Amino acid sequence: MALAAPLLAALEGQDPDAYHADAVDSALGGVPLGSFGGIGADHWLGVEPGTGRDLFARLVYGARISLGVGLAATVVQVVLGVGVGLAAGLGNRFLDNLLSRTTDVMLALPSLVFAIALLAIVPAGFPRPVLLVLVLGLLGWGGTSRIVRAQTLTLKSLDYVAAARLGGAGRWRIARRELLPSLAAPVATYTALLVPSNIASEAGLSFLGIGVKPPTPSWGQMLSTATTWYEADPAYVLLPAGLIFVTVFAFTTLGDGVRTALDPRAASRVRGRARRRKEARA
Amino acid sequence: MSLVEVTDLTVEFGSLRAVDGLSFRLERGAALALVGESGSGKSTVASALLGLHHGTGARVGGSVHVAGTDVQGASDEELRRLRGGKAAMVFQDPLSSLDPYYAIGDQIAEVYRVHTRASRRAARARAVEVLEQVGIPDARRRARSRPHEFSGGMRQRALIAMALACEPDLLIADEPTTALDVTVQAQILDLLHTLREETGMGLLLVTHDVGVAAESVDEVLVMRHGRVVEHGRVSAVLGSPSHAYTRELLGAVPRVDVPRTGSQATDEVVLEATGVRREFGRGKRALAAVDDVSLTIRRGETLGIVGESGSGKTTLGRMLVGLLEPTAGAIRYEGQAHTGVNPAVQMVFQDPVSSLNPRRSVGESIADPLRARGERDEGRIRRRVTELLERVGLEGAHYGRYPHEFSGGQRQRVGIARALAADPHVIVCDEPVSALDVTTQAQVVALLGELQKELGLALVFVAHDLAVVRQVSDRVAVMRKGRVVEEGPADEVYDSPQDPYTKQLLAAVPALDPEVAARRRAARRELAAA
Amino acid sequence: MTLFARFALRRLLGALLVLLVLSIVIYALFYVLPGDPARLACGPKCTTAQVDQVRAQLGLGHPVYVQYAHFLQGLFAGTDISTGVGTEHCGAPCLGFSYQNGEQVTSLLAQRLPATASLALGAMVLWLILGIATGLLSALRHGGLTERVLTALTLAGNAVPVFIIGILLMLLFVSVLGWLPFPSYVPLTDDPEQWAWNLVLPWLSLAILESAKYSRLTRSSLLETLAEDHVRTFRAYGVRERSIIGRHALRGAVPPIIALSALDLGTMFGSAVLTESLFGIPGLGKSLVDSVRTEDLPVVVGLVLVTGFFVVLANAVADVLYAVADRRVVLA
């Protein structure tokens, strides 16, 4: 949906930034004309109070920012986290101590507060979505790194890794053949849960007016504008709020599903439940 | 009426029939052992005696009467009165069988109060009393300790104390000594014996170890696939078994008094450790796991290294193959000092589960040393792996299978094939058979013997089981607290031990003959009294 | 000294070290990297003369480590600062001077503390009750419909941002039902009843979000403990199921719940930005957003430091409390 934003908006025939003064009631302070926030054939989901910008178009363009920032920040976090975690797990005592303490400090940072403060001192000219990706990404890799390091240390102590060493395999061969495949599952699980949390963070920052700045639409930024209208035009509040809710919930459910599917214990529980159910029927 | 009457008991978990038409009786004050290998259903029977399968989804058929309670037809209330009150159970792993958050005395008191109307104070006093009875020194103070503050043997004593709290008629012991060292095992078995004499309670012992059974009971019942194979007096069943499976089982049990046959030891030293030491931790907390050990290993011979947990034998094994660097001292291979791993010195690991990568086919794992050596010809790799698989008694077609498709014994064979792939001259086997059933154990030991003869291998056999070590070794080193306390030809060490610790170890080994067992018990008692 | 005391001391010293590193990072980020920190600190409305004065106050002419040492000295011993109109003493912990507000940052933040504390403590009581109760229920009804419904609810609660929950609650209780006033903070000392009444919505929003975590934690540790061997032991000794759950299974859930509570409480001090902004609670979090908007750098930096302090302290306290509840970790 996010990729197809221009297409979808074109389909409706509305521009996300075009003002429609005719669609709002200026006498009432700019409340949209018509029921449910001005929903009609022209404006599928109504218009923004005050300006009359088309909500459907803004929401689909907003999706690009919201989802794009969420996913890109996740990529940054995972790449950094896996890199640092592997280096700490495989490196010597000094490197491990250095990287682990750094990770501890990263995890101890109040990341939301830090993100807000950082966004405040960066010059206004810097593109906000990119900045958001960097800030979220650079602040949020600690968890992945800690998981990867712990998993690497566990795997390293397993007999089959010792056996591979005895067989003459080098450091890289062991990392590639014996460690990485077993790391994939926990990393995938954790990643799947990072995505919704990043989407939520972007929404939160933009909601506070610190993330994406108008006129660029993002769901959090729209919600922020909407709360000032929430008595007069509740539909405007419900749309972005509902979208954030549904998206984050959907990604979390997906992440939870990934965890269940990849956790051998959980998987055997599911199989056991299915077996018991089958037996109960028989 | 007998203390226990089991008639035609069946227990099914889904489509699996764990116990299949089992019947037996146990009279008051008598002792019976259920003996069998893993999967024989022996522990399932023990649980059925207390009705522990109620509400778990297992289907139980037949009838079970314990101390006058019809377990099958009993109400929840009657079952609760039976459990711990009339019949008490001692589990295998004493650490996980106690609640880590409460003091041991409080846990015993809690159980006591479930079955009596005793006050808290009286229950605490009773807890101290039973802890004293099982031989815990300074019981009043120790009753306030939590389980992790006890040693393994002490914890098992505490569990037995809990069982004794309500003076039950029957004690059910499910592998009570399996997690313990052999000297501690002997103490616990002696304790059970003494308690039976003192209290007159009946004992149902569940064990995989024929020796443990011979030490402790009057009657044995050999189980296999959920059925009775043979049932009778210990001396009769173990002395002149009538069933083929019993004979096979007994034949597979290694004997501590039977020396190795068919040795091809030479005088040519291949691997040598001189004054090796290994510390873990740094500074003040550094602990030497291995301390000033010197050993030689000669072509064609087997050196047994035997010791209890914490003796440093595994650390020593890992230094011999180069997985761990010694803190001091050196490892020499064919006279040359050697650090790091060496293809000519390979290892077979204890745990057949964790020693194979679950995500790679066994063929790929075995091919690793070939590829590491630079072999690129896939056809040649495949042929060599197939040959190795067949050599260890598997099929070449198993190349593409994954570890979970194999049994424990088969996985251990894969581990041996992988070690052979590097064309080694020495193989260090770290507890290679301790995770296996006794019949499988015998097969793997036999395979190692054949390979040694065929390839002229030197073997280092690290194990806690004195009998297995005797069975395979030409020479033996006994380790304790990181040091070798005695070393020499296996026959000399076993038949005329010099070091007091070696003597103690050998005295603790369970005997298969009940009369010998009784004599040894008496000897241990005298030793303890002196 | 006991093992435990040594463990606690080591943990707290570790926290101190992290705080020191944190202060260096913060100082570098906000006072060294920007081109003209004096202008940033003074705010957009300052004249050039005022900026020069701030520059002198910050010691920007000196080498970086001297500046930092001065900054540290203020934190631990207090210092004298020029306010633009004169000089006043700024007692430890001195976080600097807000030129826009004409007040010391420390006292500005101290005024904000009661509102944040009101929000955090009240919400915590609520989320603990809600979380543990639903977790317990869900574990006891394991495999049933109740568990599945609760699992879905906690998943939703865990995922959805607090401001969404807050807005929806506000729409429902204020606009549609009209049961609650539009929240506006009333200090506890002024009117306890109004204080509580106005905080119901923020408490509830935070509690719904946070309780999901506690519900999952309670459920999973209960189920884990119930599957353990020692529970089997007590069943085999005729102990009632009620005592097994009450005495043995719940006991295993206590250490992680206590640790997580300490952690979350620490995070609430400063990081409840969204809740405080949404409901207009004049706490630390709201103050952060306000000072970012007005570009009041000294307050922003002070807030980041204070928030970091609470989070790091909470981390250490959580570890120590965990060890109190489960002595085995001291040995590990």
TrEMBL record, chain A:
Q: What is this protein called?
A: Peptide ABC transporter permease
According to its UniProt entry, the protein's GO biological process terms are:
transmembrane transport
Task: State whether keyword Membrane applies.
Answer: yes
Residue span, ABC transmembrane type-1 domain: 63-255
Q: Which UniProt keywords apply?
A: Cell membrane, Membrane, Transmembrane, Transmembrane helix, Transport
Q: Which domain of life is it from?
A: Bacteria
Q: Where in the cell is it found?
A: Cell membrane
User: CDD domains per the record?
Assistant: TM_PBP2
Q: Which residues cross the membrane?
A: 65-91, 103-124, 130-148, 235-255
Q: Which family does it belong to?
A: Belongs to the binding-protein-dependent transport system permease family.
The family database entries (PROSITE patterns) matched by this protein are listed as: ABC_TM1
In terms of SUPFAM superfamilies, this protein maps to: MetI-like
Entry membrane topology: Multi-pass membrane protein
Gene Ontology cellular-component annotations: plasma membrane
TrEMBL record, chain B:
Cite the entry's keywords alphabetically. Answer: ATP-binding, Nucleotide-binding, Transport
Question: Any keyword Nucleotide-binding?
Answer: yes
Q: Which domain of life is it from?
A: Bacteria
GO MF annotation terms? ATP binding; ATP hydrolysis activity
Q: Which PROSITE patterns match?
A: ABC_TRANSPORTER_1 (PS00211), ABC_TRANSPORTER_2 (PS50893)
Gene3D superfamilies with a match to the protein in the record? P-loop containing nucleotide triphosphate hydrolases
| Any one Gene Ontology BP term | peptide transport
Q: What is this protein called?
A: ABC transporter ATP-binding protein
| Annotated organism of origin | Streptomyces brasiliensis
UniProtKB/TrEMBL annotation, chain C:
Show where the ABC transmembrane type-1 domain sits: 113-322
Where it mainly occurs, coarsely classed, is membrane
**InterPro entries this protein is in?**
BPD_transp_1_N (IPR045621), MetI-like (IPR000515), MetI-like_sf (IPR035906)
Instruction: Please list the GO biological process terms of this entry.
Output: transmembrane transport
Xref: SUPFAM superfamilies: MetI-like
Q: How does it sit in the membrane?
A: Multi-pass membrane protein
Keyword Disulfide bond carried by entry: no
Short name of any one Pfam family annotated for the protein: BPD_transp_1
| Alphabetized UniProt keyword annotations | Cell membrane, Membrane, Transmembrane, Transmembrane helix, Transport
**Which protein is depicted?**
Peptide ABC transporter permease
Q: Which organism is it from?
A: Streptomyces brasiliensis
